[in-house]
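Project outcomes to date are best conveyed with an example. Our students and postdoctoral researchers have been running inverse folding experiments weekly, and each run begins with a structure described purely in tokens. The record below, which covers 700 residues, was selected by the lab manager from last quarter's runs and is presented without edits.
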């Protein structure tokens, strides 16, 4: 090859030289690639690369950007041999030359055509897996797809959910020993769900094993022995409500023990009086499970939240580390779930070695290390009326990845603090039934909107040995990006305010910041392209979950229609400019002065809007960015046009259809939106001082 070829071209010529296999993925020191969601089996979200460090980061600039035609941009990319792989929105996969930003291929699984009711639920995709030249991605409609990385052609596809269920996939698969595992979500929606994790042959897609996380009806027999143990922790006829325990996010392969660890979600429905009226721990919800990686056989479990009553998913990162505990090295898991405790857990047997609060926590006083159980606060289970608790159902830490630096020994947690308010007034546990196609918790839905200034957040550097913060940086508002730690002793994090920032890993001092032109909720990665260290992150309007918070995130001004979903790549001395990007600005509601609106009309509409529309269009019809702000939408000014949209006219663009809503119900929603628009123009807030109803937490 001629010596004058730019390094980028040289790197491209060698594309395909790295074999991503078990040896590659277990090598924490190998720095060139980012070939798994957390980079290696350790799930650290850490790159040993050191070209970008505290002394050079001021020179960091944009190498290139690429705006995507997708619904959201919250996913963690992969980088192998100088090629970036980015899945975004409805699992549209892109291969991009990492040095130039040139799109190499794009694969669209056309989810909107087949998802049906599932189009209503949860996030777009959050990540990919790579193994021996193939990419693996899940879809909202429930497929696990294998693509040939060279050209994006389909290798195989399997449906990993059950026919007619409400399960969707947003999390990243993991690959080990020639096997690929994937879970799913859907324990708050429709008919609710019963969690499972499934393992397939990475070459062929043949199913190897499936691990169910909660017991079904004992009369049908149990799929594995551990479920007989689990069934003793449930009461009543729990199987009628499926039970929850979704494996929707964290999965970690541990080569030291040849085990899989995964965290399960909340118990379903949230209201324990419905699903398990006699109480009980409700295994294996809100639990970490360890399975034999080859057979899927149960090894151990640890339940962070017995008898969950607060949507405390424990599906957040499970990082592998070896820490000096009481002077001896211990192989441990590091885990900071929604419930606000930071856990250090012995990988050999699942025993909790330590657990301390990394955020404001009121639901429990402490974790009793002798039993491993939380010491709950009195009256916290809304036994005798409404309960306000910290953290709320959004969690002190949601799905946005935390990172661990083996150099500093610190874990960098994207922390959030916002209370929850659960009440089951007016709910009869004996007769309650989920509404098909809607958000279902078994709790009362209240009228209040969260005030704009609700919710705080911080980047917390946590010392897992001493179980205390090393430093903390407060951020504006709430709902930010995952973190990346570098060998150059930097931590990168994007924020909901649209900045992408670098901090000193040892002090928290902010050393660099970039305006991305949209919220940065995804986690960054770092890798080599053309022999140089690069950093890539996705940006876009707030996705589902955060979008439902309405004013809390809407104040940042990222608009579903106006703002881009984009890939940003940075390099030292990068000089590229962002394309022209609209300035942030809050939605401008439109009024129809001819409409006669009153409080009764508004309340009737809210009752239809709340279970069907809140998850995307936001509490109080204030969109946080995951769907258009209906108050400012011309479509919602027109009765016939609005009805057509709700009936499926915009389905190919991601707006689900609601065939079960009759004309009267649809018009009722529209009048609610019109009333909220008029109120916003008048500068008024929603009636009722009640705290907000719970919204979909991190499980989205
Ligand atoms: Ca959940």
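After processing, the design step wrote out the following sequence:
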């Amino acid at each position: 090859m001629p010596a004058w070829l730019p390094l980028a071209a040289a790197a491209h010529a060698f594309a395909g030289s790295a074999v991503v296999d078990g040896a590659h993925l277990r090598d924490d020191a190998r720095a060139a690639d980012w070939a798994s969601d957390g980079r290696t089996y350790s799930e650290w979200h850490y790159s040993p690369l050191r070209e970008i460090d505290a002394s050079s980061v001021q020179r960091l600039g944009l190498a290139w950007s690429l705006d995507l035609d997708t619904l959201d941009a919250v996913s963690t990319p992969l980088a192998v041999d100088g090629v970036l792989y980015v899945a975004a929105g409805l699992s549209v996969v892109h291969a991009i030359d990492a040095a130039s930003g040139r799109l190499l291929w794009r694969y669209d699984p056309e989810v909107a055509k087949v998802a049906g009711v599932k189009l209503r639920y949860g996030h777009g995709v959050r990540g990919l897996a790579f193994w021996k030249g193939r990419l693996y991605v899940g879809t909202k409609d429930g497929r696990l797809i294998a693509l040939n990385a060279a050209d994006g052609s389909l290798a195989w596809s399997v449906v990993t959910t059950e026919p007619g269920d409400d399960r969707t996939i947003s999390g990243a698969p993991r690959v080990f020993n020639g096997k690929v595992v994937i879970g799913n979500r859907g324990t708050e929606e429709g008919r609710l769900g019963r969690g499972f994790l499934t393992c397939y042959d990475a070459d062929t897609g043949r199913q190897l094993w499936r691990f169910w996380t909660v017991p079904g009806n004992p009369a049908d027999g149990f799929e594995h022995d551990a479920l007989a143990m689990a069934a003793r922790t449930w009461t009543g006829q729990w199987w009628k409500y499926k039970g929850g325990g979704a494996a929707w996010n964290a999965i970690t392969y541990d080569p030291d023990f040849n085990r899989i660890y995964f965290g399960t979600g909340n118990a379903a429905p949230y209201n324990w009086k419905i699903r398990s009226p006699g109480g009980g721990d409700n295994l294996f919800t809100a639990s970490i499970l360890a399975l034999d990686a080859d057979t899927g056989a149960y090894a151990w479990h640890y339940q962070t939240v017995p008898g969950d009553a607060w949507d405390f998913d424990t599906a957040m990162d499970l990082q592998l580390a070896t820490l000096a505990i009481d002077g001896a090295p211990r192989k441990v898991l590091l885990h900071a779930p929604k419930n606000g405790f930071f856990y250090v857990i012995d990988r050999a047997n699942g025993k909790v070695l330590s657990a301390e609060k990394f955020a404001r926590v009121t639901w429990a006083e402490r974790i009793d290390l002798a039993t491993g159980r939380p010491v709950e606060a009195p009256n916290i289970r809304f036994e005798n009326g409404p309960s306000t608790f910290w953290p709320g159902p959004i969690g002190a830490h949601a799905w946005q990845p935390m990172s661990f630096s083996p150099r500093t020994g610190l874990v960098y947690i994207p922390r959030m603090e916002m209370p929850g308010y659960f009440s089951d007034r007016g709910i009869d546990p004996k007769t309650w039934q989920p509404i098909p196609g809607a958000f279902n918790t078994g709790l009362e839905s209240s009228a209040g909107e969260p005030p704009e200034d609700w919710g705080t957040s911080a980047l917390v550097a946590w010392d897992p040995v001493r179980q205390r913060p090393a430093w903390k940086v407060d951020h504006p508002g709430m709902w930010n990006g995952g973190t990346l730690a570098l060998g150059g002793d930097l931590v990168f994090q994007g924020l909901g305010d649209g900045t992408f920032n670098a901090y000193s890993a040892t002090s928290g001092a902010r050393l660099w910041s970039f305006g991305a032109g949209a919220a940065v909720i995804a986690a960054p990665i770092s890798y080599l392209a053309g022999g140089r260290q690069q950093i890539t992150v996705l940006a876009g309007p707030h996705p589902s979950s955060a979008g439902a918070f309405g004013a809390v995130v809407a104040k940042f001004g990222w608009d579903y229609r106006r703002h881009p979903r984009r890939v940003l790549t940075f390099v030292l001395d990068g000089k590229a400019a962002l394309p022209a990007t609209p300035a942030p600005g809050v939605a401008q509601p439109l009024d129809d002065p001819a409409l006669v609106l009153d409080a009764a009309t508004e309340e009737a509409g809210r009752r239809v809007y709340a279970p069907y529309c809140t998850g995307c269009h936001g509490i109080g019809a204030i969109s946080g960015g995951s769907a258009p702000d209906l108050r400012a939408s011309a479509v919602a000014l027109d009765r016939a046009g609005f009805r057509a949209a709700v009936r499926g006219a915009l389905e190919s663009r991601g707006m689900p259809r609601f065939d079960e809503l009759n004309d009267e119900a649809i018009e009722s929603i529209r009048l609610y939106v019109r009333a909220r628009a008029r109120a916003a123009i008048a500068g008024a807030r929603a009636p009722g001082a009640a705290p907000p109803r719970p919204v979909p937490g991190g499980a989205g």
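The radius of gyration is 24 Å. The first strand starts at residue 46 and ends at 47. The training component of this project remains on track.
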